[in-house]
Each structure stands twice: as structure tokens, then as C-alpha cells.
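Morning run. Coffee first, then this:
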Amino acid sequence: MKTKKNKMTILLATIGMVFISCQHYPKDEVGQAQATFDITRSVGAELYTPESFKQLQDLLDAALILVETQNSKFIKNFDKSRDKLNAVSEMAAKVSLEVQEKKNELKMEIELAFTDTRALLDENNQLVQTAPKGKEGAATLEEIKNDIQSLSGEVENADKIFQDGDFINTLEMINAAKQRLTSINAELKGAISKVTKGKIVG
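And here it is:
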């Protein structure tokens, strides 16, 4: 009697082991996790939210390692692997949303920078007309005019990049142009102020 029970126990245990070992490889979950990860990369997560992207990449790598570890075993159990892969997909969706929010913030910052920079361009072009044109200042004034013209071209190039959706490089370009135009603005106002004060004293 005990022998029959023992044999039945062994048989049930064997069936259970075979059942567990025959768990299917989580192909769909792996594909979904990889696809959502690729989407975050395609929308620019690596550039706009690098820390979150790195965390997502680490999570995906860990999930894939866990899958392969289980797949190499005779008795396979992919339950934890599936949970981790699903976590990748969930996190990827959050990262994609974070990227969009970051892009919206940058877009607003860039649009404001363009407004300020174009205002500086207009003001500097007007100041050039009233700046002193003495012998000593003529060469400097011509150089300033050329700088303003060059910076105007840089602003237009930045606008093209902006329209293409490259917000990071756009912001870098427009801020550099704004900084240079601000310096020119101060230089022109300083020169005009000196002449004005000289006339008052005279």
C-alpha cells in the first residue's frame, strides 16, 4: 500500500516538474518590452531624460538576463521574468510621457529666447545707425555690423533646427546668439552714451 502511495507521489511530483519545466518562453512580453524601450529611444529619451532612460535600460537588461537565466534551466519558471518585463513596458510609457513634458518645457523656453533675441537684433540695428562714426570708431562699427548680420543668420539657422524638432541644439544656438547680441547692445549703448555726455559737457 505504501509502495503504491510512494509511486503515486513520485508520479505526481514528476508530472509537476515536467509541467513547470514546460513553461513557455515569454516571447510576447520580451517583444513588448523591447518595442516600448525602442519607442522611448526614438522620441529622444536618451537626450531629453538621460537619467530615466538609463534606469529603463538597466531594468530591461536585468529582465532579459532573468529570462535567459530561467531559459537555461531544466525546470523553468518565467513568472518573475514576466513581471519584470511588464514593469519595463510600464516604465517605458512613463519615460515617453516625461520626454514629451521636457520637450514642451524646452519649446516654451526656446520661443521666449527667440523673442528676446530678435528684439535685440532689431534694437542693435537701430543703435548702429546712431552710433558714433568717427575715424577711430568706423572700423569697430563696421565690425559690429558684420557681427550683427552673422548673428542674424545664426538665428535663422537655429529656427530651422527648431522646426525640425531638435530642441537641445536650438536652445544652445539661440542662447549663444542672445549672449553675443546682449554684449553688442551694451557696447553700442556705451559708445553712444560717451558721445552724448561729451556733447552735454561741451
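The chain has two domains: 2-100, 102-201. Good start to the day.
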